[in-house]
Amino acid sequence: MGDLKRLQRSGWVRAGVPQPESVADHSYRLALLALALAPRFGIDAGRAASIALVHDLAESRTGDLYVHPDRSDAAARRDAKRKEEARILADLLGRAPGTDEWTGWLAEYQTGSSAEGRFVRALDKLEMALSALDYERTYGIDLEEFWESAREGLEPGPITDLLAEIRSRRPALTKGRGTRWIYLHGFASGKSSNKGVFLRDRFAAKGVHLEILDLNLDLEGREAFRTLTISRILATVDRLLDGSMRAVLLGSSLGGYAAALAAARDRRVEAAVLVAPAFGFGRRFIERLPPGALAAGEFETHHHEYGAPRRVSTGLFEDALAYPEFPDLRCPTLIIHGRRDESVPAELSSRFAAERPNVRLVLVDDDHALALPATLETLWRETASFLERYLL
Q: Would you give the end-to-end CA distance of the chain in angstroms?
């Protein structure tokens, strides 16, 4: 049953919610809601909480299965699911004391044969709506389909009224909240990027979740550094922002350039922080390829995330040539760049900032890695100050 702590709820995964709750998380809060609300309605709180705690135990074996209500065989599938869950729970418990009581609680939930069972079934929908509200406020994702599902799954009653009251306050509760924070790492880097992890931890202390995208993966989540392109990075960001209301993009080197391109074409991006952005990536780096690389169509480079050489297609640079060297970036933007940058000259960022009143440029005494402790502290201080209104 411990697997339930690691089993993510499939609906939130399907909706693209970052770090969604586990089945155990859901059952725990459902039990707390039962304990808190049952006395208001003359319901046995202990029995209701017990039902809440056992109602999804079988998913430790079945997984969090989802039956789409529009399927022609939805009713038959739900019935089969209920029978399988009852069988699995009995098998999990074996001859343990209280087995009949536990399986009875599950039956009450499945059939609604008791006031407590019906109450927990209603609370299950309310808990889903509360989770949707949590994610909307945290990540800026529009989860209307889950609010509709909660409403449609409830029969008229006090929980329906409570859901309606919460839903009526939803616009006010999500106003000014829900900005999605995304970090794009540099070329041949990854989710353990020094600057990405540094910023993620500093933002976490402010109660903000910074998502570090793994640009080494393709759109299906498979390792695909060899076929990395700017177009794929932008498609990954597009997919991540699908359904979002607002976003702040941060990026370093190649990721900084990609973040600028993404922000230039998506009005939901309200601000950008670019760290040594690799403006003109395609043209400048194609000139620096090893001899014969273009003819071979690929070359080998050291990959910092993997700690070993990896091959990458020259299509990365050819694809980059299709994009402007200096994106038409209109949102408020902060650039941090090292004066001694040997890979991307700071002059590029200076030129970019000089032409755009919406861009603030901070030059530091460092190279492209920007790894000096003093530099990292400057990076955080400038970033936190620049994004202060989004951190409130």
A: 39
| Residue entry with tokens 């009450």 | 108
- Alpha-carbon torsion (131, 146, 141, 255), positive or negative: positive
The CA–CA distances, whole Å, from 142 to 17, 82, 137 equal 10, 30, 10
Residues 48 and 120 sit within 8 Å (Cβ to Cβ): yes
Q: Of 144, 215, 137, 148, nearest to 177 (Cα)? A: 137
Q: What values do phi and psi take at 58, rounded to 5?
A: -65, -20
What's the token pair of residue 229? 């392109």
pTM (2 d.p.): 0.62
pLDDT in tens, the chain (392 residues): 688 899 999 999 888 887 899 999 999 999 999 999 999 999 999 999 999 999 988 888 877 655 455 555 556 666 777 778 778 887 877 777 778 888 889 899 999 999 999 999 999 999 999 999 998 887 777 899 999 999 987 888 889 999 999 999 988 777 655 678 999 999 999 999 999 999 999 999 988 889 999 999 999 999 999 999 999 999 999 998 876 668 999 999 999 999 999 999 998 899 999 999 999 999 999 988 988 999 999 999 999 999 999 999 999 999 999 999 999 999 999 999 999 999 999 999 999 999 999 999 999 999 999 999 999 999 999 999 999 877 65
In the chain, what are the domains? 2-174 (1.10.3210.10), 179-391 (3.40.50.1820)
Identify the three-state secondary structure at position 44: coil
